[in-house]
Amino acid sequence: MTTILLSLLYVLLIIVTVYNLYFLVTSISAFKKKKLNTNNNYKQNFFSILIPARNEEDVIGNLLKSLKKLNYDKNKYEINVVLNNCTDNTYNIAKNENVSVIKCKNKITSKGDALKEAFNTLKDRDIDAYVIFDSDNIVDSDFLKYMNESLNNGYKVAQGFRELKNKKIIGYLIPMHYIIIFKIYFLMNLEISVNHLHLLMVQVL
User: Fold this and answer.
1) pTM (2 decimals)?
2) DSSP secondary-structure letter at 198?
3) What DSSP string runs through 81-100?
């Protein structure tokens, strides 16, 4: 009986060791710097920014102000607040900031439904790429500049890096958590046909 238990333990130890070695090797490869494609044909793409919002009057104003300060041609991006069953002052705040408002007309049960309606509303427009933010985000001023660079280099998908404005201990731990998840777990497991994801900076309240 003891021999059988020891044999099972050895087998389990081998499995755990192999499993850990796999993650060690793949995590190291995830941190390897990838060579970016270069594109000499510079183009300033047009971006449509979508902000799904449901009763976000307390936070959306800060986001809109940061978006209007982006270091990017103001004629090359638009800001759309997608209203989802709002009962507060979100609409008036958006209008006071002179941004576009899309009112959902169909039944909305989730953020995905709101975005789907926004895409359908804008589908006939000449838009190069969409950017989606939560209402409580604050955006780095160079966000669209790097997004445009990624798009010109042929990347189809980009994910922002979120950093808390709260500089207490938790404010540093949460961004670290996102880096670990993105670099180790996400990149090493995801195989996509649209090159690799490009890290950008977005600050989150």
Assistant:
1) 0.68
2) E
3) EEE-S--SSHHHHHHHTT-E
Cβ neighbourhood burial of 30 (10 Å; 0-12, 13-18, 19+): middle
User: Given the structure tokens 């950017």, which residue do they identify?
Assistant: 131
Summarize pLDDT for 89-131 with one digit per residue, the tens.
999 999 999 999 999 888 888 899 999 999 999 999 999 999 9
Residues 134-148 have pLDDT tens digits of 999 999 999 999 999
Burial 71-99 (b: 16+ CB within 10 A, else e): ebeeeebbbbbbbbebeeebeebbeebeb
Exposed/middle/buried for residue 139 (C-beta within 10 Å: 0-12, 13-18, 19+): buried
Contact 141, 181 (CB under 8 A): no
Cα torsion through 49, 53, 58, 63, rounded to 10? -10
Secondary structure of 139-194 in the HEC alphabet?
ECCCHHHHHHHHHHCCCCCEEEEEEECCCCHHHHHHHHHHHHHHHHHHHHHCCCCC
CB 67, CB 134: distance < 8 Å: no
